[in-house]
Amino acid sequence: MSNTVKVIGGGLAGCECALQLLDNGFFVKMYEMRPKRSTGAHKTDRLAELVCSNSLKSEEPTTASGLLKEELKYLGCRLLPLAREARVPSGSALAVDREKFSELVERELNSYQGFELIREEVCELDGSPTVVATGPLTSDAMAGLIGGISGKRRLYFYDAIAPIVSADSIDYDNAYFGGRYGKGGDDYLNLPMQKEEYEAFYNELVNAQTVVLHDFEKKEFFDGCMPIEEMAKRGSDTIRFGPLKPVGLRNPKTGEKAYAVVQLRRENVAGDCFNLVGFQTNLTYGEQKRVFSMIPALKNAEFLRYGVMHRNTYIDAPNVLTDTFRVKASESPLYIAGQLSGVEGYVESIMSGMIAGQAIASELKELDYEVPSEFTLTGSLCRYISTCPTEFKPMNANLGILPPITDVRDKKKRKQAYHDRSISNIPMPLD
User: Fold this and answer.
1) Does the model's pTM come out above 0.85?
2) Run of H or E residues at 381
3) CA-to-CA distance for 324 and 98, rounded, in angstroms?
4) Which CATH number, 2.40.30.260, 3.20.20.140, 2.130.10.10, 2.40.50.140, labels domain 160-306?
5) How far apart are the first and last CA of the chain?
6) Residues forming CATH 3.50.50.60 domain(s) in the chain
7) pLDDT one-digit tens code per residue, 302-313
């Protein structure tokens, strides 16, 4: 039995996988190409850097995101407790201070004597036990290796990042703190817009100049990260019923309801910068400054980071992977985890790293390993990745991938039933 496993990639999936292996008594050599070679989206060389939003979505137990988190707690996930240590106020969602989260993850990994971090790009696979978790921004060399294994063309979709503004530059006379329907305390900063203001903003948004993307044949957007300008082009009310919906919000200073409301979420614990929720964009930097400054509270906004779009690469997983994220055709233990495998989302990537880490540890110990039941989101995602019968697209956690519950008509009760059934199918820890 080899007692050392290579983990290629220091993102969420790679770090979760490494911790699972270290807990199982293995030595881990983690390879991370940054800072020697960066990507179009990363800003630092830190491990477990959150590239897009700083939110890991809802913790409400009857939502798909909340249910997945609860399942992972019982399955022994290592990163989510660290995320909660680094959390920033965000209502029912789990949002984190990016720098603090990365710091906690690095500290945890480095607390193991069996952990070694190697800062170099991997350009070949040598047959040793390996987990590839290089993420959707994987290098061309690694993408070529994976493409050779799968025998399939490279697949991709577009992903986008929202801008961040300085807290000191916001006009608080045109803003107020509060959550929808009074829930979540003062976790969000709301920027109201009246009809005339919104219509002027909308017209400039849909006609603004975008970055020309030369290296793609066509646009493939993932709905969860669709650029706001593309969403707006579907109709003038599309974003007003989406990220700018005013429902459940009323200005406490005036009692007034707005026609549209932009929400900002704290980016760090200090609260000195805010993320524009739902404002992923491919506008040029100059157009972002011009158009987003039309939002009254952002008329003098200082943009600390502009939004950007990048390509996410993923493999044709059903033809390549088992439900444990193992490469079917590989004689030696070779696993592919994270968004490269076709899961979409932060917590889903963590889940894949957890499963891959536990599974490769079991394989090297010559023990059987089974993914959780199909009645759990974890199990359903694993099975979707390995057996999707239709055209394969990246998938995030949603109740629609679970076997349906048809005998409960009430929507709220049906969500609770999905939750209860899933948790009852998770093996509970002995302690």
Assistant:
1) no
2) helix 377-387
3) 29
4) 2.40.30.260
5) 29
6) 4-154+315-424
7) 998 888 776 677
